[in-house]
């Protein structure tokens, strides 16, 4: 039952990510693409600072001792938000989100296959290949629908 809570939390996160894309796109029309991404991260950072102050139980000084590669996630997040801001007006919300999901799944399969970052190794197989092919086919159909109307 506890795992269901995590699944629902991630589904909600995905739904909020789906709402974030058009909101950030609208913001970028007023302030600019990079400025919109900066604004989004600025307000997100402010909210997280409050969450850390109220609920945090860790030790932020630990960032001085972690391997430097573990700090690159912020760059990846900034790239993702900026890419979505640029892509949404051009390929639509559904196309941009679905393309990002495919990217996440492809990278997830690579990480699983090789057991990168200490995760359990799950070998790539025909089922995963078929799933990837079907998703790419679905993306092409979604994008084709965007441009045929």
Write up what this structure looks like.
- The protein is mostly helical and 149 residues long.
- It folds into 2 domains: 1-90, no CATH class; 92-149.
- 79% of the residues lie in helices and 0% in strands.
- The protein is globular, with a radius of gyration of 18 Å.
- The termini are far apart.
- The mean pLDDT is 91.
Quick structural overview:
The protein is mainly α and 149 residues long.
Amount of helix? over 70%
Mean pLDDT: 91
Strand content: under 5%
Whole-number count of domains = 2
Computed structural class: mainly alpha
Estimate the global geometry from the Cα principal axes: globular
Q: Main beta sheet, described?
A: none
N-to-C terminal Cα separation, in Å?
Answer: 44 Å
What is the helix tally?
A: 5
> What series of H and E elements makes up the topology?
HHHHH
Radius of gyration, taken over Cα atoms and rounded to an integer in Å: 18 Å
Q: Can you count the beta strands?
A: 0
Which segments are poorly predicted (pLDDT under 50) over 5 or more consecutive residues?
none
Kindly list the characteristics that best describe this protein.
mainly alpha, 149 residues
Show the helix and strand layout:
Elements lengths: L1 H30 L1 H23 L17 H19 L1 H22 L11 H23 L1
């Amino acid at each position: 039952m506890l795992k269901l809570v995590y699944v629902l939390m991630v589904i909600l996160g995905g739904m909020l990510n789906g709402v974030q894309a058009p909101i950030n796109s609208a913001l970028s029309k007023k302030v600019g693409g990079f400025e919109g991404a900066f604004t989004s991260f600025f307000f997100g950072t402010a909210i997280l600072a409050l969450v850390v102050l109220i609920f945090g139980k860790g030790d932020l000084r630990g960032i001085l001792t972690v391997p430097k590669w573990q700090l690159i996630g912020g760059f990846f997040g900034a790239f993702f938000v900026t890419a979505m801001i640029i892509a949404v007006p051009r390929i639509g919300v559904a196309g941009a989100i679905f393309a990002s999901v495919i990217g996440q799944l492809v990278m997830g399969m690579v990480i699983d296959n090789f057991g990168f970052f200490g995760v359990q190794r799950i070998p790539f197989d025909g089922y995963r290949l078929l799933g990837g092919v079907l998703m790419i086919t679905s993306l092409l159909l979604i994008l084709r629908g965007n441009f045929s109307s």
